[in-house]
Specification:
mainly alpha
Length: 202
């Protein structure tokens, strides 16, 4: 339920305006704007009754991500982890600032910043829901492109990547995939199903 529809729509529009500045394109649209719209669309499919805070968090998950490029950190494992941590904080603070400008209260700001900051996965239900939507969007829209950029990866490597994503998801999100409600890339469908199928008993 949306407490103030006008305020909510103004905030979503402000998030979208910020993402529309992305110079990188995805099928002719600013990349992060397209990503944000895909996140909202997936949330509507997976959890249409999600709280207002989650709807806001999902839309702001990658807000202005291009402003913190991977190359701004050392190109090693530690640098990657620092980059991810820095991104979570940047996204949370950017979303919180825009929400405050549109009149949201401190409690709602904290809920959105907690989710966008990826705090409490597996513990905080709203953070977990954001993680679920992130993973569902990745499987449907981005896994195929990721695979195309890494043709050298072995089947074992792909199974490891897919299983890591699967482990972050709730059982409800896993069931959503297994029920055929996510459009998996045809070329990777057998591999995905192999990676997520339970091992045979015995």
């Amino acid at each position: 339920m949306i407490a103030d529809r006008k305020r909510f729509e103004a905030t979503i529009a402000a998030f979208d305006a910020a993402n529309a500045e992305d110079p990188n394109l995805d099928e002719g649209q600013p990349k992060e704007l397209r990503y944000a719209q895909r996140m909202s669309d997936m949330l509507e499919r997976f959890a249409p009754e999600a709280a207002e805070a989650v709807q806001l968090a999902v839309r702001a998950q990658h807000i202005q991500r291009w402003k913190t490029p991977r190359s701004s950190y050392p190109m090693d494992r530690q640098g990657y982890l620092q980059w991810r941590t820095g991104l979570y904080k940047f996204h949370a603070e950017t979303a919180g600032r825009i929400m405050a400008e549109n009149g949201y209260d401190a409690e709602t700001l904290d809920r959105v910043k907690t989710a966008v900051g990826k705090k409490g996965i597996k513990v905080n239900a709203e953070t977990q829901l954001l993680e679920d939507v992130t993973d569902l969007v990745f499987l449907e829209h981005y896994l195929a492109g990721f695979a195309a950029r890494h043709p050298d990866y072995s089947e074992e490597k792909w199974i490891e990547i897919i299983r890591k994503t699967w482990q972050k998801m709730s059982q409800a999100a896993r069931d959503f995939v297994l029920a055929g409600k996510v459009s998996l890339p045809d070329t990777l469908r057998p591999l995905i199903l192999k990676a997520v199928s339970p091992p045979p008993r015995g």
